[in-house]
Amino acid sequence: MNRPTIPDLAAAAGVSVATVNRVLSGTGTVRQSTAQGVVDAAQQIGFYGLRALQHRIATSARQVFKFGIVLQSPHRSFTEMLASNLERAGSESAEGDVRLTIEVVEDLSPERVVSIMNALSSDADALAIVAPDHPIVSETIDRLGDKGMPVVDLISPISARVPVGYVGLDSWKVERASAWALANTSRRPGKLAILIGTHRFRNHDLNKSGFRSYFRENEGEFVILESISTFESDAIAREVTEKLLRDHPDSCGIAIFCGGVSGVLAALRSRKSTQAIRAVSYDLFDSTIAGLVDHTLTMVIAHPYERVAREAIATLVRTRRNAEPQAVGQSVHVPFELHTVETI
Hints:
Blueprint: H1 6-13, H2 17-25, H3 32-45, H4 50-59, E1 64-72, H5 76-92, E2 97-105, H6 110-121, E3 126-130, H7 135-146, E4 151-154, E5 165-168, H8 171-185, E6 191-196, H9 202-218, E7 223-224, E8 228-229, H10 234-247, E9 251-257, H11 261-270, E10 278-282, H12 286-293, E11 299-302, H13 305-321, H14 325-328, E12 331-333, E13 337-339
Parallel strand pairs: 1-2, 1-3, 3-4, 4-5, 5-12, 6-7, 6-8, 6-9, 9-10, 10-11
Antiparallel strand pairs: 11-13
Helix pairs in contact: 1-2, 1-3, 3-4, 5-13, 6-7, 8-9, 10-11
């Protein structure tokens, strides 16, 4: 009988010939589970290079990375989506043995975030956080950075003295896209409202600035109202939206840059006026999908959570492999997704 070849091994392992060659040569990155699958297949088919493969696996033990993740959001859907994708990206990473400890803060307390950051830093190689841009958070990042503990901001950037990485959307572009959508779907120029969660999240402020800049440059006939905070609460969001509609019945659009979207949608659905109001919101959840389906929402701008998670893990790994400030402070802007009723 002819002895099994590399293509035979690739077929038996269910991978490409290139992957088998990477395992044999030790070049490139191959997930540990994939490499072990190649070894197992080699043993089953009697591949002549079995011992070489076993030796390669034994001598190429993957580096262990321990990362602490702090997610701060009172919205369970957002937190669960991000957390589950981070866990998957960590387990599937080809960069090393990535071990995550994820802690969730279900309120907007910066003190609680700082407490968890300090606790996780005692046994982590780097931290990634979703948190408000608050002085005590920035001070903690600076203190940890001085001790050699890199921090990466997720979703919303934070200012600090030490270099801080960032993985998330380009908020300026996100809200210029929102502004374009409202300007081009509104039947006539009118008043436009901006709802934000809290000014402590810098991405909300950047959203607001990008939104206003679009209308300054392109659509002078629209009137942009002062932004309103919902504090990420459905109840508060409904209350402030109902007041907005009473005070400004001639409003033609709302940009929802915050949590509490269910409250906003409830207020829009319950209003008596027949005047059309266009609305743009964040992220695909049950509530926003329903809003698109019944045309309460015009467009949803969404985080590609899988891509965000992969980039977050890769960025955390880079901070440990290269301690230079430019590596620690690298920003990764992930392309956002646009959804309408026709795309869901």
